[in-house]
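Much of what follows relies on a compact textual record of a protein's fold. A record is reproduced here so that you can trace the correspondence yourselves:

. . .
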Amino acid sequence: MTEFLAILVYFVIASGVHIVAKKINLPYTILLFVTGLVLIPLTIYVPGFHILDEFQLTPDLLFFVFLPVLIFESGYNIKHQILAKNSKTIRTLATVGLLIAMSIIGFGTYFITQAVGLSIPLEVTLLFGVIISATDPVAVLSIFKKLWTPHRLNLLFEGESLFNDGTAVAIFLVLIEIFRHGVFDGQTIALWLVTLVVMILWWILVGITVGIIFSKVIQQIKNNEVVEISLTMILAHAAFIFAEYLSEYVVIGGRELKISWVIATAFAAIIMGNYGRTKISPRVESYMDKFWNFFAFLCNSLIFLLMGLMVKDINVPLEELLFPLFIGILMVIIGRAVSIYVPIGIMNIKKSHEHIPLSWQHLMARGSLRGALWLVLVLLIPNDFTIAWWQHVYSIKEFLLAMVIGAIMFSLIIKGLTIKGLIQKLKLDKLHVLEWFEKLELDIMVYQKIIEKISFMKEEYHIAKKNYDELKAKYIAKHDEAVLEMQLYLQQLEKPDAVVSKALWLHALGIEKQYLKEMFEYNECNESIYMHMLGRIERQILRVEKWAPQIKKEHENEEKTTQPRLEKLIDLLHTKKHKDCDTYVIARARYIVTSKVINALQKLKEMDFGYKKSLIEPVIALYQEFNNHAHEEMEAMTTKKPYLVNEVNKILLNKWLMKTEERIVKDFWKKEMITSKLYKHFMNEVEKEILRDV
């Protein structure tokens, strides 16, 4: 009972901290940690706060409850296409970068402390190096999202963290076993290197397998948000626990094969977030995202609060901790910088990946805040773990825990509070060329819509002529000012037509995605068709974002030959042989979405945006070509198999009518013209019809 009350108090405190953090514009994770530090004297000296000690951050709580949630939430929201596009960079940072940082921290701390007469064994400093090299994106990404840093930069941070955590855990487990056995000959090291590689492959296999199984199970459930969300929560912990369970039974060379919950859970999340996302009922997807955002918020709140409170558990004398901690933090700063600048610099020179600007590298070197995984790795060290030449009264585990908590304090408080200024100094929060154009275009569209709405309101709500004239004049002036601002902005650009064209192509592809998803939501196309068409749109978006034409030329076949393995796997899972009716449904879907795009572009052409309207013509022309081709395919199928097409059309037309009925009845229900009981009854009937496959 007291533990439950303590949790409630923590949630109240976390909610209050979140409100304060928003008002004073500070990252809430950092403020939570500071709040945890403030709570220490309160729990000691104020009677009412003693209850907070009833709930503490234990290894099992971190290991089996919090971390699966945070890892899953991070992996679930990563798109495999974008991850695959940056996979080489992320892979290099998560392996080579990690080894560089670990070596500099471990050996640097050892040699400097030895030079001043401190007896800290190399084994201990190497463990510290591995633990401290694992990055935690939670705190830093919360800052990035507020300041609107580039999306690719956010992905590099999150992707690196997700995978270097797994690598760090693997190396950590191997080092612990090597140090416990005390054997350092070449044969033993070679065996452990092989074990490390096999471990990583096992983890990936376990994660992918569990992710696919749960995706298939969710596929059998339709429009039941409670069950579908519960299954994803079970998946996050199942991948985690299953990996640990297998560790007890898989043996290589007489040694247990530790399967990392980090990589297993990460891959399970990526599979669910990409392959499994289409198995989730479309109407449940928004509930799913909100649930995982909320659940991650709760876990982060408790972790950062309790981490602050853990400072009082440090048993190492301060005078014996300060100098090693200072050296350790210094080595962390140097190690992180070298692990970023050297690998990325080499890859930039070799042009083996998409160029990463120096300003991004500065932020990546500085913005690696630390968090929960550090504590987990320390807590994984056995209590009786020791080394023959360890000479202190406190244990190795206690020493490393003190070093880690000290590093967390420096990382979150010092680096965390200065990173916002660094982002602004590097101008990474500024809108880029296309974003500025889209912002000005949005202003114009908003003012245009408001002017139309004012005219409608005059007739509908009988607005006085004086008020009507004042409002209309006000927004016409704003509209004209926005158009002028657009014209001035385009005049400053070297290639204004290229920027406008790129934005228009992306608008068109965005409209395609929107209406295709709506068709999938109402089961007017099945999952295989949806993913087939969505994959084409996503590839075209990536091409346009790189300033390439939307449609690749016939001789451009490098996309298929260089497609990353993860992307191939996701595509393979979705690929099915299309039947004749599928061919017609695909042609019909293309006809409908291209018609929607053409209609939307025609409306844009009627508005005054301050740029050449002739730039819209090539986009309309291409989509008209798509539209004509889709119509020809539909006609060909109608001629070839008229009975089949007629039956398919009957089903699809009925779905369209059901969609219309659903909207009308939902409107009646919102206006309380029908009871909730009647509304649910009707929705159940509609759902049966909509879920009927073509």
Observations:
- Strands lie at 251-252, 255-256.
